[in-house]
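HOLO CASE FILE
Compound: zinc ion
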Amino acid sequence: MQFENFVGNAALKKALSGAFSRRMLPHAILLAGEAGLGKRTLAGILARAAVCRGGDRTAAPCGVCPSCIRAAAGSHPDIRIVTGSGASGAISAESVEKVIGDAYRRPEEADVSVYLLFVEKGISDAAQNKLLKLIEEPPPGVIFIFTAPSADILLSTIRSRVQTFTLRAPEEQEAAAYVAEKAGISMEDALALSALHRGNIGRMLSDGENGRAAKAARLAGEIALALAEGTEHDLLAAAAPLIKDKPLFPEAADRLQLLFRDACMLKSGVRMDAQDIPLRVSRRLPLKNLLRLCDLTAQYAGYMQRNANMALLVTAFCAKMRETAGK
Ligand SMILES: [Zn+2]
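Model generated. Tokens follow.
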């Protein structure tokens, strides 16, 4: 099995992979762990592997067969997702009744039907009692995958009939390397996030402010490269997300200033641990223009009118940057 986007957890991967290769995957699985550890990611991988038509079980989910493509798009008929509803967010007896009515039909395309039950917010006792018989004597070719913060959320009767796999956060270094790549932030920033969240990748990625910081940094990188290497159209396209995200504008401008500052230092011969983008920018633009770009972006980072027309502001910003860059 392949575990794209699911980091760490080597022992758990080995166990699941081995069982899957031997066609011995349990018919009822519980993936337990706190929010952000990748329960739904792993559940999705297992579901896609189960319906994959690729043939090679060690490479499943292959990602390219028609089944994988439909599954990735969320439209595979044999993968059903059951989530909670209502104020409590718990899975209701009615939702479970639908599963029961459905589980005895034959799969439409794959050899198996997979039910993903996301129990993060709980599941009513009535719902669990209804599920019990189905899990005790499952129809052939049906796999149930539960996700929950802890096994305790399930009644002991259900718990004793599912095989529990407990997810853990990867090593902080490993989590940081993944997040740095995924969010386009420096390894240093990623390590700080990793230490803060003890390697919990979901929290690292979605952490409100840090998530925005990562987004601003990524966007700034794209804008800087479009300015240095691309056309006017490339620059406008790179900056377009700022039109719809007003608070992101000053953050992105601030990040741009840091990029241009690094490019200036590189251009002036300062030896530093250079990252790819400032290096590429420094190769394309003269020092005096880079210095003026620092000033310009600093000015825009501090400039944010409450009622600014964002489309006009972003367009003007791009035009000023190109002019300043000597384009
Ligand atoms: Zn496939």
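CASE NOTES: The chain has a mean pLDDT of 91. The pocket of zinc ion is lined by residues 52-54, 61-62, 65, 67-68 (CB under 6 Å).
CLOSED: yes
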